[in-house]
Automatic annotation (TrEMBL):
Gamma-L-glutamyl-L-cysteine binds at residues 85-88, 414, 418. Pfam families: DinB_2, FGE-sulfatase. SUPFAM superfamilies: C-type lectin-like, DinB/YfiT-like putative metalloenzymes. Its EC number is 1.14.99.50. It comes from the Bacteria. The lineage of its organism: Bacteria, Bacillati, Actinomycetota, Actinomycetes, Pseudonocardiales. Its cofactor is Fe(2+). This is Hercynine oxygenase. The gene is egtB. Belongs to the EgtB family. Fe cation binds at residues 51, 137, 141. Catalyzes the oxidative sulfurization of hercynine (N-alpha,N-alpha,N-alpha-trimethyl-L-histidine) into hercynyl-gamma-L-glutamyl-L-cysteine sulfoxide, a step in the biosynthesis pathway of ergothioneine. It comes from Saccharothrix saharensis.
Length: 437
């Protein structure tokens, strides 16, 4: 088999894997649940499905393949910039049967385009980039659809085995040495524009938590009156916590002195050693302040994840350069919850930091910006239009993310008030002179 055939097989397998997931998430509910809106924050599931097909048609059928449109008439309906999520149910969308037919028809054409396209010679197709971008796009929407499932009210429809058990993780914090490290990538074939280029960054030494903050630790902040004490909150955070009447992470509920949380239609006692999930940036920041720490910057997070002090180089993943396996990280919607801390010893970074990839997206204190040398590719709407102070960067992916769409260089972003996403955090702090001596 030639390397191009190999790459084609890999692309085809990834496209199929993404589609299997989309199908599972949309076949799990009836037509009524597919077309209705489960939250103003989310699109109807049937919009996500046809939007996945429409992006695939635009980039792979029309642009890469140079083929005639399948349905030029619906581009406008599925343009995410034209209609806010809140108004999408009012649009004359394709119905469930039509949407399924449409994405199937597009996919058939894409397999044909894949067979006939040389995966080299110009940047859009080098290394299968455009196909990889569409795989990641579908997987990102699969995570969004999973978040819609979490907001859906009704009988549970999704099932998965529980995550592996937790284990020992060593000291609570890890010292990351100061000095230069390589951030971002110029070599990862499917990396998106905002992850590029690789560049040197110098940090001071700092401490970072060995694991994400757990439900148990977060519950102590709640019990200590954390949500009622402005000392722990930024000005914007305090204004938000009051306006939105926040008292605990989303989907937590207190019954008879005990916390419960609801996930995918099932209500269970809070698991103390699982990472906290469904907190917004403001909540993460307030907890960190209460704990006498702060959130890591995006630079610090990536250094803790990738820097190998033995060689000085940055790895693709915390555990090394090989793709994730079940032993490394809680990804791919394999489990429908974050795993208890210490569940993935094989996934620890060279410095001994655990569960950086998978489980929960981790808020960082950084605004979303392009790196020095950033170049828009292939379109400004992928990330450049979001650069600026409105968004905070999240890192590492969650149990709802697919491994095709998560790397140690991968950057996600969202508004600091959002918490319907699978977001948690870990803390960091400066290292004092005494601690370094
Ligand atoms: Fe999209």
């Amino acid at each position: 088999m030639t390397s191009t055939e190999n790459l084609r097989d890999r692309v085809a397998a990834q496209l199929t894997r993404a589609r299997d997931r989309s199908r599972l998430l949309t076949d799990a509910v009836d037509d009524h649940d597919l077309v209705r809106q489960h939250s103003k924050l989310m699109s109807p599931l049937v919009w996500d499905l046809a939007h996945i097909g429409n992006q695939e048609e635009l980039w792979l059928v029309r642009d890469v393949g140079g083929r005639e449109p399948v349905r030029a008439d619906i581009d406008e309906l599925y343009d995410a910039f034209k209609h806010a999520r809140s108004v999408r149910p009012e649009l004359p969308l394709l119905g469930p049967a039509e949407a399924r037919r449409y994405v199937g028809e597009v996919r058939d054409k894409v397999f044909d385009v894949l067979e006939r396209t040389p995966l080299e010679g110009h940047r859009l197709v080098d290394g299968g980039f455009a196909f990889g971008m569409i795989v990641q796009h579908e997987q990102q929407h699969d995570e969004t659809m999973l978040a819609t499932h979490q907001l859906r009210v009704g009988e549970p429809v999704l099932d998965a085995p529980p995550p592996p058990r937790g284990g020992p993780v060593g000291p609570a914090e890890v010292l990351v040495p100061g000095g230069p490290f390589t951030m971002g990538t110029s070599t990862e074939a499917w990396a998106l524009d905002n992850e590029r280029p690789a560049h040197q960054v110098v940090t001071e030494p700092f401490f970072i938590d060995t694991t994400p903050v757990t439900n148990g630790a977060y519950a102590a902040f709640v019990a200590d009156g954390g949500y009622r004490d402005p000392r722990w909150w930024s000005e914007a955070g305090w204004a938000h916590v009051r306006k939105a009447s926040l008292v605990a992470p989303r989907f937590w509920e207190r019954v008879d002195d005990r916390w419960y949380r609801t996930a995918f239609g099932r209500t269970e006692p809070l698991v103390a050693d699982q990472p906290v999930v469904h907190v917004c940036y403001h909540e993460a920041e307030a907890y960190a302040t209460w704990a006498g720490k702060r959130l890591p910057t995006e630079v610090e997070w990536e250094k803790a994840a990738r820097f190998d002090p033995a060689t000085g180089r940055s790895r693709r993943y915390p555990w090394g350069d090989e793709d994730p396996t079940e032993a490394h990280a809680n990804l791919n919607q394999r489990h429908l919850a974050p795993a208890p801390v210490g569940a993935y010893p094989a996934g620890a970074s060279a410095l001994g930091v655990h569960q950086l990839i998978g489980d929960v997206w981790e808020w960082t204190s950084s605004d979303f910006h392009g790196y020095a040398g950033f170049e828009v590719f292939p379109y400004a709407e992928y990330s450049q239009v979001f650069f600026g102070p409105d968004y905070k960067v999240l890192r590492g992916g969650s149990f709802g993310s697919d491994q095709a769409a998560v790397r140690s260089t991968f950057r996600n972003w969202d508004y600091p008030i959002r918490r319907q996403i699978f977001s948690g955090f870990r803390c960091a702090r400066d290292a004092s002179r005494d601690e370094l001596a």
